[in-house]
Amino acid sequence: MDIVVKVLVLGFFATIIMDIWATFSNRVLDFPRTNWAMVGRWVGHIPAGKFIHNPVSTSTPIRHEKALGWAFHYMIVTVYAAFYVVFLMFNGEHNASLAQAWYFGLVTMLSPWFILQPALGLGIFAVKAPKPNWVRIQNLATHSVFGVALYCGWLALHT
Question: How is 31-87 classified by DSSP, letter by letter?
């Protein structure tokens, strides 16, 4: 299978699994859920040079911001999947392990904690969120699920 196709399949698979987890944990466990419209608003303001909002909800709305936020989400996670595939190619594709994938998923938490959440006006580690500890727990759980989904997707592509 072509590497680009592998990355796309793996990225979309892992993202769908992660989104199913996020929906479940929001509805059943009352975990906070990412507002993809606000992410889209943030992305929509970047071309104008506005990278940090205090908070993003007070910034001017962007046309189709929710769709833009979801598209950005899938794009970023597919980029992560590409990094995971490159990691496996250099580490030996047959040496993939659940632990490595889980660690990889945890490393991807650095982006929301140090880039996205501060840019949206939530501060580092979502310190300004209404329930910062719940956000952090949700980040940990969601990115763990993402790592496990990468591993499962990798196995499925290679069986």
Answer: -----HHHHHHHHHHGGGT----SSGGGSPP-TTHHHHHHHHHHHHHHHHHHHHHHH
Mean pLDDT of 145-151: 97
Contact call for residues 38 and 96 (beta carbons, < 8 A):
no
Residue 152: count other Cβ atoms within 10 Å of its Cβ: 16
Q: Which two tokens stand for residue 135?
A: 């956000």
Nearest to 65 by CA among 42, 48, 47: 42
The residue type of 124 is I
| Residue 14 clears pLDDT 90, i.e. is over it | yes
Q: What is the pTM of this model?
A: 0.90
Longest Cα pair distance anywhere in the chain, in angstroms?
Answer: 49
DSSP letter, residue 115 = I
CA distance 55 to 155: 41
The domain locations on the chain are 3-157
